[in-house]
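User: Show me a protein chain along with its predicted structure.
Assistant: Here is one chain, sequence first, then structure tokens.
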Amino acid sequence: MATQAKLLTPKMIVQLVLVLVVIPLLPMIISGAWGWWEAWSYAALSFFGFIISRVLASRRHPDIIAERARSMEKQDAKAWDKILAPTMALGSVIPLIIAGVDKLNGWTQPFGLNIRIISLIVVILGFVLGAWALIENRFFSGVVRIQTDREHHVVTTGPYRIVRHPGYVGAFWAYLATPLLLNSLWALIPTLLLVGVLLLRTSLEDRTLQAELPGYAEYAQRTRYRLFPGIW
């Protein structure tokens, strides 16, 4: 508890308000469409998904919140990921902004209800998979680094039995489904760029782990696919 209390600095509180409240509500803040149920669904998923996943992860791995909160400060974080990690964080916000502007100006004709419902289900499943990966993996840091200070070892349980980077799989599908849920074709443009960054980060992270984390190369031989079984 004392360690978690130390994490609640004014800077961290501001960041939490942004992540939990401001960013999820951006489509409605920009558009002024406060009766937009799809946007409310996304905001609720973002809020409760963040809270529940962090609570469950911290119960299983008490030091994971501190690791993630201070990961950008670690000296052994890979230089390329100090660029890619914040790029992905910022990139995930841009589609929400564009979706809000799209709604305000009516650029995209409404998708069918079935498309929006399927998209909502995909977003939910993406959030669930990402949360499962976080809860299962004590070394699910905010940046790529070999965590020798935390006795870093290969995790092969839970979703890691299926693919090597299940957290990225969840993010991949949630990213792609969000513009459809929010009824914005224009938001798909930055989303596709965001997915490209995600694939690049996955490749670089996997290469780093195979080269530097003992046992990971053998794990990669057993669990062949990074993200998509049978494809890659």
